[in-house]
Design goal:
By secondary structure, this protein is α+β, with helices and mostly antiparallel strands. It is about 45% helix and about 20% strand. The termini are far apart. Pfam families: HATPase_c, HisKA.
């Protein structure tokens, strides 16, 4: 019995020492965890980017000081009761239309969407700020399902104002070019028509001047069109099926001349919030480009579908295609691919930039996927203009 008691005591003391050691390790881990938490909080509160993390139900897990400041900008005016959605000073890209709750970044992220460069306007009057948002989902460790999302908010007002000033300058300069060019072209045309006995060298020089003046006028018109696309987008409920049909009818002669087939797979009606004039211009650009960059003939296909509150339009060709680097730069003003320049395909590299501007002013996005020799696919996503189902969370969605 004495031996048993002694062994039991020794075992108890050994277990006690192990418990103390484990307790010490846990305390050290807890202290290290608190240090990392403090460091993370300090970093998040130091940066000038708003960050919020939510779980799968939209409940806030983490929020930094900059995001709290954005939240205060997005609260209803003082003295306004909470309920009225129009009292919330959060607007779409036109800076005037109140943002529907179901289109807020948080609601979109909780529904599983991943997005970037989603532009909103917070506040009103001279205090209004442009906020660019992005979201990425998180996965559960257990079942690899949706576990929440992290949403980032960045103040890009200075960038937006700078771009607006640049567009205004381009528009003013382009407008000033218009009248002299018209006069130059008119007088060259009069000389070529009226003087039948011009020396061949003189006539050749005048014809070269006329061609280059025409190219310059086309460039000026594209610049003016680019500025107009930014300034005048008037959204209303529009049937995109009709716009697609009109675009194909307009492009038929160009397609026939290039031996390119046109195919449409678009359900009718297909409603979206859109400016029919500007969106029709964007579609014309995409279809015309698809035909133009299929010099050996081929097929251009337009498809459309509705998906989770959005309408997706796809313009696909079987033309020359482009590299991954070129696809990333294709929406940059004046950018043209090496293949297009080598093939002497006419253009100044403004059409897709204008198209991107129009789509973004609609609150949508445009992407391009392409491979050399395998054609290109341009995908446009637009709000569908129909009421959405209530989202899965009642958490505030101002941010």
């Amino acid at each position: 019995m004495a031996v048993s008691i002694r062994l039991a005591g020794s075992s108890a003391r050994l277990q006690q020492r192990r418990v103390k050691q484990r307790d010490q390790v846990l305390r050290q881990l807890l202290a290290a965890s608190r240090e990392r938490e403090t460091l993370l909080k300090t970093i998040l509160d130091t940066i000038d980017v708003g960050i919020v993390a939510v779980d799968s139900n939209g409940e806030t897990l983490l929020i930094n000081n900059q995001q709290r400041a954005f939240l205060r900008m997005g609260l209803p005016a003082e003295g306004s009761p909470r309920p009225a959605e129009q009292d919330r000073p959060v607007f779409g890209q036109d800076r005037r239309t109140p943002l529907p709750l179901e289109k807020s970044p948080i609601r979109r992220a909780v529904q599983g969407e991943t997005f970037s460069d989603y532009l909103l306007w917070f506040g009103a009057g001279t205090e209004q700020r442009a906020i660019s948002t992005a979201a990425r989902g998180m996965k559960n460790d257990s079942d690899d399902g949706f576990g929440g999302a992290v949403i980032v908010f960045r103040d890009v007002t200075d960038v937006v104002d700078a771009l607006a000033a640049k567009d205004e300058l381009v528009a003013n300069v382009s407008h000033e070019f218009g009248s002299p060019l018209t006069s130059i072209l008119g007088n060259i045309d009069l000389v070529l028509r009226g003087a039948q006995e011009l020396e061949p060298v003189t006539r050749l020089g005048l014809e070269v001047a006329e061609r280059n003046a025409e190219r310059l006028r086309a460039l000026v018109e594209d610049l003016l069109l680019s500025a107009a696309a930014v300034e005048s987008v008037h959204l209303r409920r529009t049937d995109l099926a009709g716009l697609v049909e009109n675009s194909l009818v307009s492009a038929r002669a160009q397609a026939d001349a290039a031996h390119v087939g046109l195919v449409a797979d678009v359900p009718a009606p297909l409603w979206a919030n859109a400016d029919p004039l500007r969106l029709g211009q964007a579609l014309d650009n995409l279809v015309s480009n698809a035909i133009k960059y299929s010099p050996g003939g081929g097929l251009v296909t337009i498809r459309a579908e509705r998906n989770d509150g959005w309408v997706q339009l796809e313009v696909k060709d079987t033309g020359m295609g482009m590299t991954t680097d070129e696809s990333a730069r294709i929406f940059t003003r004046f950018f043209r691919t090496n293949a297009a320049r080598q093939a002497a395909i006419p253009g100044v590299g403004l059409g897709l930039s204008i198209t991107k501007t129009i789509v973004e002013r609609h609150g949508g996005s445009i992407t391009c996927s392409s491979k050399p020799g395998s054609g290109s696919t341009f995908t446009v996503a637009l709000p569908d203009g129909t009421p959405s189902e209530p989202s899965r969370t009642d958490a505030p969605a101002l941010y």
